[in-house]
Structures are given as structure tokens and as C-alpha cells.
Amino acid sequence: MFTAVSPAVWILTALGFVAIVVLDLVVIARRKTAVTMRQATLWVIFYVILAALFAVGLFLFRSGTSGSEFVAGYITEYSLSVDNLFVFIIIMARFAVPALAVDKVLYIGIVASMVLRGVFIAAGAAAIAAASWVFYIFGAFLIYTAVKLALDGENDEQDFRENALLRGLRRVLPITQDYVGSNLTTRVSNRRMVTPLVIVIAAISVANVVFALDSIPAIFGLTQDPYIVLTANAFALMGLRQLYFLIGGLLQRIIYLNVGLSVILAFIGVKLVIEALHGSHIDEIGSIPIPEIGIVTSLAFILLTLAVTVTASLAKIRLGARRSL
User: Fold this and answer.
1) Is residue 231 one of the residues assigned to a domain?
2) Residues 242/45, Cβ–Cβ less than 8 Å
């Protein structure tokens, strides 16, 4: 059970996120060159520190459980969001986005998806509050996603295909053939037209929402506190743009990322099913008691899985490099 958050805290939290978003917008507006590795590194550190300070605040002013749930949720959401970067890279390459416009595209697309994810989170929290059997659905979906992700094997870049929404936008909007710097609109023969950046932003937004279909049930498997779910998602998404510039070229080195994420999703899926069983007053199967999986256990499992994933990926790359010599 979680402690209710007062309207004042919700408002202050929302204002804090708006202030960060505006700060980002000011920085982007003043930037005249493409994002450098140093800039990306500093911004990633900035957002991680912000999330850490927020977690400390939860530990001090709310409870140790809230702080632990936020840390576990943030790490899970950030880890699952890394998988989004593969799709972002493909989208940027597919649409040949100018280097100077990439930052703006990611910014608008991620802010839009933050709003859409808020709707998903509200709906998920309402569904859970109405019926505990929703955990069975969430759990089964995560286990299915985990199996599908594991069968995909190593991270292979698949061709990006425009969905019906993007094709519909192309038919409805007056779109120019070429980019106009980082502008979203331009005037051609006294007619206001949008540039292809609008389509790219829509593609980024849709991709982020699609990925939320597994990440949001995953975090609900760690906490049912809407405040923790929303803030963990927001912090993970805010740091995603800078992470794109920082490790975009290094993602191919984490070749077992899909496998690691599938293990995490399967674990949380099983945890959700166990919680659903306990909610149905089923505490044992036959003579075997059904265990309780606490947040500390969940956090330790997630961190261990990520560590093994990265270590195994780098070890395989080094082994392959030695064999090629």
C-alpha cells in the first residue's frame, strides 16, 4: 500500500518538470552546432544526479519503500528506454535528419510522448485500483514480451517501416520535399508548409508510446504508486535524449541487450502474477508456499541482470576481436 500524495506535491512536481523542460528548450534554442560528446556526457550526469536527489528526497520525506521503489522503477524504465535508442537511430538514418535538427526532433518527440505516457499511467493506475486481476493480464503480457524479445536474439537493426499514422500525415499535411535547417515550418510561394521534421517527430513520439506498452506494465510490477510510476517515467525519458548522443554509437557493443531486458521483463511478469495470486488469497500451490518478492530483491535482480548483460556483451566482443587477429 502506498501513501497518497497531496495535490500540492503533485503541483510542485509538475512545475519542477516544466521548469526542466523549459531549461532544455532554452539550451536547444541557443545551440548553433550539433551536440558534442562532452555536452551529452554532462547532461546525462545532470539528469542522473537530478533523479538521485529526487530519490533521496523520497527516502527522507516519504519512506524508504517509496525511495527504493523509485530507484528500481527508474533503473528499469531507463534500461528499457535504451532499447528505444535503436529505433531512434534507424528513424534518424531513414529520414536523413540534419545533424543540427536531431536534438530538436528528439526533444519535441520525447516531451510529446511524456504527455501520452501520463495518460497510459493514469489508465493503468485506475484499472489496478478497480480490479487486482489486471495484474494477471500485465504479468502475462510481460512474460509474452520477454519470450518474444529473447527469441529476437542479439540486437539487429531492422528496417523502419512507416505505420498508418505517418502515411496519413503525409497525405494530409503540406510537406516540403527537403529540410529547411532545423525549422518545422517554412513558407513556399506564399503558402505555409511543414518540413519533413514533423513526420520524424511523429515517428519518435509513436515509437516511444509503443515501447511504453511493455515498460509501463513493468514498473507497475515494482510499485502501484502512481506518483512513483509517473516520476520514474519522466526522469527516464528526460535523460533519454542526451543518452542518444552519448552512447548511440556504442549500443552495438551491448549485443545481449535484448536478452538482458527479456530476463528483467520475465522476472517482473512473474512477480506480477505472484502478487495477483496473493491478491486472490492464493498463498500456496499444493503444499508449496508462494514467495513474496520485495522491492529490494527486485532492485538487486535488475542490477545484477544488467551487470551480467554488459559484461557478457563486452566479453564476447573481446573474444571475437582476438579470434580475428
Assistant:
1) yes
2) no
What's the CA gap between 276 and 263, in Å, rounded?
A: 20
Name which of 114, 84, 121, 119 is nearest 237 in CA terms: 114
Which cell is 201 given? 517527430
Extract the C-alpha cell encoding 84.
528505444
Q: Provide the residue count of the chain.
A: 325
**Could you tell me which of 5, 7, 137, 21 has the C-alpha nearest to residue 63?**
5
Q: Cβ distance 276 to 135 under 8 Å?
A: yes
Q: What is the pLDDT of residues 13-63, one digit of tens each?
A: 989 988 888 887 777 667 677 777 788 888 888 889 999 999 999 999 888
Expressed as residue numbers, the domain containing 38 is 12-324
Question: 320 pLDDT exceeds 90?
Answer: no
Q: Does a structural domain hold residue 268? A: yes
Q: For residue 24, is it within any domain?
A: yes
Per mean pLDDT, which range of 13-17, 116-120, 259-263 is the poorest? 116-120
Let me know if residue 294 belongs to a domain. Answer: yes
The C-alpha cell that represents 59 in the structure block: 527516502
pLDDT at residue 60 in the model: 92
Query: Do β-strands 185-188 and 191-194 pair in parallel, antiparallel, or remain unpaired?
Result: antiparallel
For the chain, the domain total comes to 1
> pTM above 0.70?
yes
**Could you count the other beta carbons within 10 Å of the beta carbon of residue 235?**
24
